[in-house]
Design brief:
CATH architecture of chain A: Orthogonal Bundle
Number of strands of chain B: 0
Number of strands of chain A: 0
Oligomer: heterodimer
Number of helices of chain B: 12
Strand content of chain B: under 5%
Number of domains of chain A: 1
Distance between the termini of chain A: 58 Å
Structural class of chain A: mainly alpha
Shape of chain A: globular
Largest sheet of chain B: none
Order of helices and strands of chain A: HHHHHHHHHHHHHH
Number of domains of chain B: 1
CATH superfamily of chain A: MetI-like
Order of helices and strands of chain B: HHHHHHHHHHHH
Distance between the termini of chain B: 32 Å
Radius of gyration of chain B: 24 Å
CATH superfamily of chain B: MetI-like
CATH class of chain A: Mainly Alpha
CATH topology of chain A: MetI-like fold
């Protein structure tokens, strides 16, 4: 037995082709990452599911409560609506910026890219704090308006839906601009020239050639922004609004009301919604890809 | 859309679009810069126009033991977390891109999942589990949590680096008798080094900025910079936060420049290899 093992060891060193047999080549490399993922990602998620059914009144009590009580399911509806609003505004604002950057040359492109990348890597805590400095009762905007005599009393800008949405769109912009930009850079300019030669004006070139070619980027950007907004915590928790986002509601259930089963049920719903949106995106994306191929 | 662009109508449309895009860029960048005048204000409350310039909040920041401890904690947590994420992310990328493993698509989706999933969901599950084994409030607890959420960043950057060149380099090395380890050290690693460095920096930055897991899994002695900022924002707003934020902003920009530098250097290095791609 020992001899046989020693023999394989020696052979492994001399004939590597056999050690890295093509059938399950590299499978052992997956052991550490999957261990990390299994223990600290899959297991906790399974625990969330179990915890959501651990309410004293029965395993489905928490879900029944979420369905029945407006104060519990309204954050979910509000979160979905907010994600839709933020995604639409981010797309409309990002498209021209990405277009401009994809057309810019040399130094201008570098400057514009820096203006997009620095916010992308700046902490959301810092960027939300900046909005608080701008929007609060004695913040920069109100002080400026008062000094200039444009208003008599400070306006209520923070703790409003509009203020929070404006801040969330701004924080999400880079997540929309970057995917758009990568799809725009992949477009062959000769395609547009061909359309122009065939007599299409810029509007028709855009509608029939350019925009359809950027659809993968539009899809990726929208999916990224929508899914990230579903779990948005920092900005809504700091700036407030008329209603709470579901991530804030989960945190409040845990830290203020100590209701872990209910928080877990809300987290499970958020998890399922996130997965559904991701699957929907994958579905659309593969359909788009197959149509592009045909 | 370049042809026909000489017509006045389309030129006006183009100018309008450019103006709109510039306004969006200002909206993207300017609000964050509002912190700078606040950090330089001598008053504890913001006034407009600012009554003068003072560095007292920067001085207070430099002398604050809370911040010193938090920065040290962020480093003690971020560096091991990013290192672990990098080791696991590289192995996962090698297996999925170069290896012959089953369920490749599902695996890739699973490896990216921690980045997509809202951190609050993971925090709700990790906290009670880690509490049971006594990991809450310890360094290993938060390091492991950050490693799991940052591994996808390394997986993505290293997978992209592996896809930029053909596997025939590795095949050639192995045909010439190199074992897998030597092949990795002498062929694969030099080719994907930049991807690994960029992935590591991304993971480090992510860990430095992460709030929600830190809120649940750190204690007052292991709390990180974002958690300290958050607590100060919610309980005692002082312009020290503004000074701290400006310093952190500078650090972020410095790290970004480092990542950009690593990426450009690699493009020069692997420029020759890219041409071989079939």
């Amino acid at each position: 037995m020992a001899d046989a093992r020693a023999g394989t060891g020696a052979r492994t060193q001399r004939t590597p082709a056999r050690a890295w047999s093509p059938a399950r080549r590299g499978i052992w490399l997956l052991v550490p990452p999957l261990l990390l993922l299994g223990l600290f990602f899959v297991l906790p998620l399974a625990y969330v599911l179990i915890q959501s059914g651990s309410a004293p009144k029965g395993p489905f009590d928490t879900y029944v409560r979420i369905a029945r009580e407006t104060s519990l399911h309204y954050p979910l509806i509000y979160t979905f609506r907010t994600a839709a609003i933020v995604t639409v505004f981010a797309l409309v604002l990002s498209y021209p910026v990405a277009f401009l950057i994809s057309r810019a040359r040399g130094r201008w492109q570098l400057v514009a890219m820096t203006l997009v990348l620095v916010p992308f890597w700046t902490s959301a805590v810092i960027r939300s704090y900046a909005w608080l400095v701008l929007l609060q009762r004695r913040g920069i905007i109100n002080e400026a308006l008062l000094t200039l005599g444009l208003v008599d009393r400070p306006l209520r800008l923070s703790n409003t839906d509009i203020g929070t949405h404006v801040a969330m769109v701004q924080i999400m912009l880079p997540f929309m601009i970057l995917p758009l930009l990568s799809s725009m850079r992949a477009i062959d300019p000769s395609v547009l020239r061909a359309a122009a030669i065939l007599g299409a004006n810029p509007a028709r070139q855009f509608a029939h050639v350019y925009f359809p070619l950027t659809l993968p980027g539009v899809g990726a950007g929208c999916a990224l922004v929508f899914i990230s907004t579903l779990g948005f915590y920092i900005t809504p928790a700091l700036l407030g609004g008329s209603s709470t986002m579901v991530a804030v509601a989960i945190e409040q259930q845990v830290s203020r009301l100590l209701d872990w089963p209910l928080a877990s049920a809300l987290a499970t719903v958020l998890l399922v919604l996130t997965c559904l949106m991701f699957l929907l995106y994958e579905r659309l994306n593969s359909r788009l890809a197959s149509r592009g191929g045909a | 859309m370049r042809a026909n662009a000489s017509e006045p109508l389309w030129r006006i449309v183009g100018l309008g679009l450019t103006g709109f895009a510039v306004l969006v860029l200002i909206y993207l960048v300017a609000p964050t810069l509002a912190i700078v005048p606040l950090s330089l204000s001598p008053d504890p409350f913001l006034r407009f126009p600012p009554p003068g310039v003072s560095l007292r909040w920067y001085e207070a920041f430099a002398h604050s033991i809370d911040y010193q401890l938090a920065i040290l904690n962020s480093l003690k947590i971020g560096i091991p977390a990013a290192a672990l994420a990098t080791a696991c992310g590289v192995m996962a990328a090698l297996a999925v891109v170069r290896g012959a493993v089953p369920f490749r698509r599902t695996l890739a989706a699973l490896l990216i999942a921690p980045l997509i999933l809202p951190q609050i969901v993971l925090a709700i599950g990790l906290f009670p589990l880690m509490a049971k084994v006594g990991l809450v409030g310890t360094y290993p607890g938060i390091v492991l949590a950050h490693a799991v959420v940052t591994m996808p960043l390394v997986f993505i950057t290293v997978s992209a680096a592996l896809r930029t060149y053909t596997p025939s380099f590795e095949l050639a090395a192995m045909t010439l008798g190199a074992n897998p380890w030597r092949t990795f050290v002498h062929v694969t690693f030099p080719m994907i080094r930049a991807g690994i460095v960029v992935g590591f920096i991304f993971a480090l930055t992510f860990s430095f900025d992460e709030l929600i897991l830190a809120m649940f899994l750190t204690s007052p002695t292991t709390r990180t910079v974002p958690r300290l900022l958050w607590e100060q924002l919610n309980y005692q707003m002082t312009p020290i936060i503004a000074a701290a934020t400006v310093v952190l902003l500078g650090a972020t920009i410095a790290l970004l420049c480092l990542a950009a530098f690593a990426a450009t250097r690699s493009r020069h290095l692997s420029g020759g290899a890219k041409g071989v791609q079939p």
